[in-house]
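User: Round two. Same drill as before: sequence, then structure, for each protein.

Assistant: Same drill it is. First protein:
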Amino acid sequence: MTIVRRNLNWLFVLLAGVVVFGALNAASANAQQPPPAAAQDGDYLLGSSDKVRVTVYGEPTLSGEFFVTGSGMVSLPLIGEVKAAGLSLRQFQDAVQQSLSDGYLKEPRVSAEVLTFRPFYILGEVSKPGTYPYTSGLTVMNAVATAGGYTYRADKKQVFVKRNGATEEQKMALDPTVTVAPGDTIRIGERFF
């Protein structure tokens, strides 16, 4: 009887350990989840080299596809240049709508969408460093794959990311949750051994 009781005690301790480990592992996984794509897209600010489609309802000659210039402006028919850099899509739509309603159109309805995001840059210990087109939901791991993978000297434990507009790069652990934004510069360092 004591052998059965001892085995049941061990089984209980083992089961409790598995439950605690599972709970800790689940909490850790939830803490590392990136924000949903919708939240990231809602915060996206336009910048140089973005290509946007502007649609003015009922006015096909005022609608079209336009690039954000190096000075952060979009040149539109009839109203000329409108500031876009640093604005969200909603703010840009409102600016175009306001410009059109200032003596050109009565109650214009405008929509805008990003067709092509500005590129990201990757350098360091990857097979093909360079400039690549950004795609929604891009991670550092995807960016490395796009650049032909790691070289044999690559440090596969950490990455350096300089966010668009930042002055310094940040050192981050290289894991699948590290996201890339348009205009970011990624550097894969060299390992020591």
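Second protein:
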Amino acid sequence: MIELKGSEKLQVLKKADLQINTGLNALDPVLSWFAQLYDPTIPTSVWIRCQLALAEGFTNAVRHAHEGKRPDLPVDIEVAVRSESVEIKIWDWGATFDLEQKIKDMSEKIDPEASGGRGLKLMKDIADSLSYTRTADGRNCLSIVKNYTPISQMDDEEDILQLPEELSG
């Protein structure tokens, strides 16, 4: 895990929390909520990566952490848009696991034909910091931090034309 020292000192431009019931049908409302937090100083390619990481993290919480649990079990999400980073936190009520080991194990046996199984590695590739920790209240917190260099609107027009590395496989 890469730890970013001092990110808590960056100016918070926007911050919001969302609590939503378990269910993949909630992904669209989650992404709509996230879209409202966009700041024009964030390069579009960075924002798209953050959106993808959020979608993967939320989907994993629903499909894996909350599998077989009651449908009204909440997933809590917090996003802090800072002057040079986007921080996404997703809390679930599932069993804890070693994120780094799971990613390592998955990297050794990824099936390119499978419809899933790449979300954790994708989040690791996107994030500058990725962690999964147990909290005192018995939940798990997936923390995703993506750093960026603030841009002007003119810079963003060039940025959007570049396909993110994660997607240009």
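The first strand starts at residue 12 and ends at 21.

User: Perfect.
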